[in-house]
Amino acid sequence: MNLTTGASVPELLALDNIRTQLIRLEDTIIFSLIERAQFARNKRIYEAGAFEAEMGSQEPLLNWFIRETESFHAKARRYTSPDEHPFTPRELLPTPVLVPMDFPPLLHVPAASHPSVNVNDSILDFYVRHIVPGITKDKDDGNYGSSATRDVEVLQALSRRIHFGMFVSESKFQSAPADFIPHILANPPNKDALAALITKPAVEARLLARLANKAKVYGCEMDADGHVIEDTATRIDIKAVVALYHDWVIPLTKEVEVDYLVHRLDEVPQSQIDEWMGTA
Amino acid sequence: MNLTTGASVPELLALDNIRTQLIRLEDTIIFSLIERAQFARNKRIYEAGAFEAEMGSQEPLLNWFIRETESFHAKARRYTSPDEHPFTPRELLPTPVLVPMDFPPLLHVPAASHPSVNVNDSILDFYVRHIVPGITKDKDDGNYGSSATRDVEVLQALSRRIHFGMFVSESKFQSAPADFIPHILANPPNKDALAALITKPAVEARLLARLANKAKVYGCEMDADGHVIEDTATRIDIKAVVALYHDWVIPLTKEVEVDYLVHRLDEVPQSQIDEWMGTA
């Protein structure tokens, strides 16, 4: 999110603004998947102990790449931004060298809860188990570093996309808090009702159709003059890109959205809740 | 270059194989330029001293990003590959944690000369002074980390593309050494003649046309359903991409190619030269 452009909180949380960013992230995700797909699966990258002799640990090579990349990005204050979530536990990351920026308070972050919802473990798991096999050939071409570098880029883009759900939730909550509050205050909270309030099947269907079209454009073959050869998309499996969103990105985003809503009233004064409910 | 797929040296040095890799790199370069262009120019990234209070040095932020990224990649043995050249002086980079792979001896590397031709200083200079201004809006949106991360990706791809010229030179030299040898042995070496031997104006013209078409496809606007809106390419300036290659990538590649050829006979026994010349 362009959090630093001087836009006001209502502007930043406007659903149109959020949607624009989510749509732009689709391109980043497809680009990075195409970049990864030029290399073989190279499954050693993901196996515990495959590089134990050299690394001195059982850690999979990819996890080393993630941690090293995030360690530097932490120094460059990446994870002080409310739309960025590291895969590495925050306590293992260095403190920022650059002074963190002042971000407007866009999200409700209760002091007692975790700093924020974080589904990165799930993202890493489905990426390695389902996405990489779906977009690569089951071979080993030895390009471990090149592949793992692209993996980190895909993972960071997916994480950003999925955790953006918190902004979606906040935006929708603010536009009609009284719709959400009874389901949040139910004991236990009514997660199905909360999910129903933020789910727009027509928007999801359109998203999947758009993704397929984008993957087709970006993954096309071109001749030596750069002209698109129609009906080729051999550089990325279009079905795999659509399945990525259908099976993983959309459901996990919903999990993030609902989890955020469940904690939306934590530490909120009763007087504020009464005001939202019109019972003040 | 997929140096590790078990292909033989003649296969790896076949001009068709090299061209395929160069064409694939065009897509990587355009993708990464589009990713950079979504952010503002953010010229503070490139200014010496802009972050001095925090970093404790005059170093531009981008240079810090390059050095930190390359330090990790060095540990992951990136710069032991003959097609990879760091921007950071090699002596400042850590030694590889991963055991370097055995690469086939594709290039002629005289022991007395620098490890290899390296024009990265020129690449960084033209990128900051000409390319970034050509693809971004002259604004500051505060997204310094996101921008600098993309800068590093563009720079690494450009460096790989330009230094690939050494493989082109070696391939062409091997196919007709007697054509090159007199110009290499001239005192001083006849660089113009060497350049003429490796220059194919028709190939260059086709490359520039292909690039424009690719930038048009990848930089297109799409509607909410992912359909291309014809004759839009607002995400990247097509002319800037073509100029990047015309003004910088092609001339610098030629510099790398000629410089490689000038040193191609260093430490080569006279008997080998005689054999190539048919005078043995």
TrEMBL record, chains A, B:
Pathway this chain belongs to: Metabolic intermediate biosynthesis; prephenate biosynthesis; prephenate from chorismate: step 1/1
Domain of life: Eukaryota
Keywords attached to this entry: Amino-acid biosynthesis, Aromatic amino acid biosynthesis, Cytoplasm, Isomerase, Phenylalanine biosynthesis, Tyrosine biosynthesis
Keyword Isomerase: yes
Transmembrane stretches, start-end: none
GO terms for cellular component: cytoplasm
Stated name of the protein: Chorismate mutase
Gene expressing this chain: ARO7
